[in-house]
Amino acid sequence: MPGAYWSMVEDDRQGAPKKVMAEVLGEASRLAGAAGAQAEAVWVTDKATPEGLKQLGEWGARRVWLFENAAFAPYRAEVWTPVVADLVGKETPQAIFAPVTTRQREFMARLAARLGAGLAADSTVLTAEGGKLVATRPVYAGKLLAKMTWAKTPWMATLRPNVFRPGDGAGAAATVEKPTASIPTESMKLVERKQEANTGLPELTEAEIVVSGGRGLKGPENFVILEELAKVMGAAVGASRAAVDAGWRPHRFQIGQTGRTISPKLYLGFGISGAIQHLAGMRTSKVICAINKDPEAPIFKIADYGIVGDLFEVAPLLTKEFKQLLEK
Amino acid sequence: MKILVMIKQVPDTATQVKIGGDGRAIDTTGITWIVSPYDEFAVEEALRIKEKRGQGEVVAVSLGPDRGKEALRSCLAMGADRAIHLNDPAWAEADTLATARALAGVIKQEAPALALFGRQAIDDDMGAVAAQVAEVLGWPCASWIMEEAVDESGKTIRVGRQVEGGLEIFDLPLPAVASAQKGLNEPRYPTLKGIMGAKKKEIKDVKAADLGLAAEPPALSVVKLESLPPRPPGRIIQGEPAAAAKELVRALREDSKAI
Description:
Chain A has 328 residues and is of the alpha/beta class. In chain A, 30% of the residues lie in helices and 26% in strands. The longest helix of chain A has 17 residues, at 311-327.
């Protein structure tokens, strides 16, 4: 049997894999199935729950390689890399995938360097072509797509959230293996973890719906209008660079080239003109809506739906309409 | 304290990019080049560390063709003391790993206390090189830092790295690698004096052989570049705000099944 298709598990730090793993494992299962191989998960964590392990099986992992040890938290690439690299040496997987999260992006890069392997970061399409894997990735501010391929295995890639089709959730229980690991001593010492206040809204890069505000909001106090809409829709709230640079929102909410790249199922932009730098961060959203009083705003060129109007009027009306619809 | 800052020259965001003749790279005619914005945060932070300590040296390093000298010159104008240009056809096809090996070679020779990077370059957005250099060197790495403070002894650095849902504060022994996230600082503009002074500063050319390296086949390569598939034409919803809002919600539910 050809080498397995691995997915690195991103978890919630409470023992459960994040929902984005359904997509990564779904894609890994499809590619592995077509190649006569199996999808497997590799989970490096300080805590894995039985429910979490079951979930990985349902999403398509036939086997879970579990490294569970207090030394794996907080995440440090210098500790994880040798442990996973040893297993790669023994098991010779065909491919290693991971979701795009801050730590997986760094970890996968470091692992790739240790293995001498290629890494296609932030891929949006993976296809098998003549025994090779080809990754498609947006480049140059999302203005072009690059198709890339690997000189040798393992083929390593990180996958953009919300782009890949999730596994159907009907997979059987996975076999759980707990390989022994010699855990290196870390040099980085955690001093403190500053947790952001929980807004009750989903994380920007993972959210299926994103409501976003720009300069048209006129001030930080007006973001409350978008938060009300977001609460009704279960959406995350993002901002344009103009709004962040004006100090209206913290930088972690910025969508765009010098912020977060998002790919939600539905994006609603309010008072956002749609500069290239913003489009770079949200162009792969499935459905794009724009509300702007300037009919010439470039965002209307890529929007599926647009309303030319005053966001201060339209946003509360949308909140009311969505509330009615979703409460039915 | 010596700090090396790795920078990359990239097309300006607003610049039009066209696919070149070979279909694998962009046509570089008429492109405006800039220092990748995240790398400017790294240069700025290096200068601030030096200024705060009252001594030290900031060296800007870049891998790329001849035109890369302009980007290094911009860093010298900001205040970097000297620059190193890894400029060799052997690196023409360099992927992130080949780039990391080359940069690690220079870092080994220069032996700085700190190697600073931008979080990612805004041309290919790979965001891999900092962590890969750290792996080649066997150094610790803090990615996406929002704040830092070098210990007075110059032996450790305290950094705040951005992760989903928070900021993690770590102490790292030096030497170490760190990559800058937006929010770390506000990069300065070069002064006229800085721009004039930059002309006299050294930009040293380094070839692959100087680092004991040779051209290597890339582990990952571009098969081809493609234009974006056209998006279906959008629809402007007309009418009074209340009617338009109602229609948008209906269309999202019934036509595009987005909600």
